[in-house]
Design brief:
Oligomer: single chain
Shape: globular
Helix content: 40-55%
Strand content: 5-15%
Distance between the termini: 59 Å
Bound molecules: flavin-adenine dinucleotide
Strand order of the largest sheet: 2-3-7-6
Number of strands: 9
Number of helices: 12
Structural class: alpha+beta
Largest sheet: 4 strands, antiparallel
Length: 391
């Protein structure tokens, strides 16, 4: 007798580990992605154009922008609920999840954690509603993994600041209303809240991307951007500021990548059951079943890890090196799953008729951004040995 078919997460009984509220919230985001994003995403990816402003507003209405933050119009959900939302959004596309991660975990969190009361009042309610979009400028063309060498600088002119330099690979750059920009000052690295309509601020769209095509990626250029004294984030100094934000976003990625992987795996399972070669479904061959079983194991293990990290975070116990475990493992395994699923679809695996190659290409960016695989390996290595091996 045939055993009833199980979804990969169903086999792990993942729902058993979630509260009713978490399951409900997850289902709301999943429905939005199914109804609004999945029918359009292949076209957005192919053309490299997304209705970012429209989506931001809808995502604000959905309550996912900065959802894990308290106050200022934010939903104040648990970390696990935020992770599950990231997972469902990334099951749609990593670009959609990036829009939400950069908004909530990088730009909003930076203002929420380190900004003045005026910064928070001015930006957070509108950003939570998706009426204002934020971006986060840390990386520069010559300083990616090692942001401490950044050249962008802010110098005093009377009580004002004058900002000069540039930032590279900035998600949401061309659609942002506000940029949280990290710059060298006489006092070390400081963060600045920069309205993107400031004279001297330019955003240049990065073209010819083969990954995260349904996401806006930009170069930011600052030419003598004059900012008031109050533009500086008053409550943090040094790399601790940007790293605290990255830690938030990396946590979301530990969940998010599993959404892309789940979509690939569910697509590959359904395809393999339907696709007949040598007179039987390719799902009926042991080689195919081994692939599906191995991928299900990695997906489920990644989810157990993400949930464990989420529960730790909700108890305020999560350490940055533990976030590295999640980001490294889940981005790496999601990419491996996407590549194997692409293989299972054969020739059909290379078209945008199926989601797999889009997820696969997106995951190449996710593998690199928010700390590369190597950087997280070194974080874990340092935690284990006490020896920093970055240099
Ligand atoms: P590099 O730092 O030059 O690294 C190249 C390779 O060398 C990598 O494999 C790396 O692991 C390896 N390497 C470097 N140093 C070492 C070492 N010590 N030991 C071993 N290996 C090493 N940044 C932002 O600030 N804001 C954003 O919104 C943002 N969005 C992005 C969106 C996209 C689509 C992409 C692709 C990037 C985005 N980034 C953003 C930038 C991203 O964080 C950087 O690309 C990433 O940190 C890596 O920097 P890099 O590209 O300069 O690579």
């Amino acid at each position: 007798m045939a055993i009833a078919k199980q979804s990969p997460f169903g086999l792990f009984a993942i729902d058993h580990l979630l509260t009713e509220e978490e399951r409900m919230m997850r289902d709301v985001v999943r429905s939005y992605v199914d109804d609004r994003v999945k029918p359009e995403i292949a076209d957005w990816f192919e053309t490299g154009e997304i209705p970012a402003r429209e989506l931001a507003k809808e995502l604000g209405d959905l309550g996912v922008m900065g959802m894990h933050l308290e106050g200022y119009g934010c939903a104040g959900t648990s970390a696990v609920a935020y992770g599950l939302a990231c997972l469902e959004l990334e099951a749609g596309d990593s670009g959609l999840r990036s829009l939400v991660s950069v908004q909530g975990s990088l730009a909003m969190f930076g203002i929420w954690a380190w900004g003045s009361e005026e910064h928070k009042q001015e930006w957070l309610p509108r950003m939570a509603a998706g009426e204002a979009i934020g971006c986060f400028g840390l990386t520069e063309a010559d300083f990616g993994s090692n942001p401490s060498g950044m050249i962008t600088n802010a110098k005093r002119d009377g009580s004002d600041w004058i900002l000069n330099g540039s930032k590279m690979w900035i998600t949401n750059g061309n659609v942002a209303d506000v940029a949280v920009v990290w710059a060298q000052t006489d006092d070390g690295i400081r963060g600045f809240v920069v309205p993107t309509n400031s004279p001297g601020f330019t955003a240049n769209l990065i073209h010819k991307k083969m990954s995260l095509r349904a996401s806006v990626t930009s170069e930011l250029v600052f030419q003598n951007v004059r900012l008031p004294e109050s533009a500086m984030l008053p409550n943090v100094k040094g790399l601790k500021g940007p790293l605290s934000c990255l830690n938030e976003a990396r946590f979301g990625i530990a969940f998010g990548t599993l959404g892309a992987a789940r979509d690939c795996l569910e697509t590959a399972i359904a395809y393999s059951v339907d696709r007949v070669q040598f007179d039987k479904p390719i799902a009926g061959y042991q080689l195919t079943q081994k692939k599906l079983a191995d991928m299900t194991l990695e997906l489920g293990k990644g989810m157990l890890l993400a949930l464990h990290l989420g529960r730790l975070k909700d108890e305020h116990l999560l350490k940055p090196e533990q976030v590295s475990l999640g980001k490294l493992n889940n981005a790496r395994e999601a990419l491996a799953i996407a590549r194997e699923c692409r293989n299972i679809l054969g020739g059909n695996g290379i078209t945008l008729e199926y989601p797999i190659i889009r997820h696969m290409n997106n995951l190449e960016s996710v593998y690199t951004y928010e700390g590369t695989n190597e950087m997280h390996t070194l974080v874990i290595g340092e935690a284990l040995t006490g020896i920093a091996a970055y240099r």
